[in-house]
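The pair is quoted verbatim below.
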Amino acid sequence: MSIAKPRIFTGWHMTTILVSFFAVVMAVNFTMARMAISTFGGTVVDNSYVASQNYNIWLNAADRQERLGWQVVARLDSERHIRVSVEKNGAALDGVRASGDALHPLGRKEDQALTFVTVGDGELRSKEALPQGRWNVQLALRKNADIFHVREPLQ
């Protein structure tokens, strides 16, 4: 019966382990960096400190908007035009004008300016149809001096 000779751990073994370890770390880092860059949709604000200076103004505007009591629903119709219905106290609110933009949530498609026409009973319809995909719609609804801002996701 022969006894197995122990293998000697050499510098080549250590070199192989170190190179393999750092190759795996670099592969993971490059993969994660590529994924992060390809899915980055941009910033919400460029300077958060400057944006924070307007926080109270935004709160006051939200309070004024809530006091209007408007209920706004935005949806896509079968032809991918945006339909917006506006109600106050459960009744259709007529005489509302709208303007806005359709924004792709990840910034991969061009933003689209929207114009609306009244189709009756407090309902508006966009003249433009949206391409397939997910969109966020930003609307400014106006009636006389009242302004109501809404942002809705659409699919």
About this structure: The radius of gyration is 28 Å.
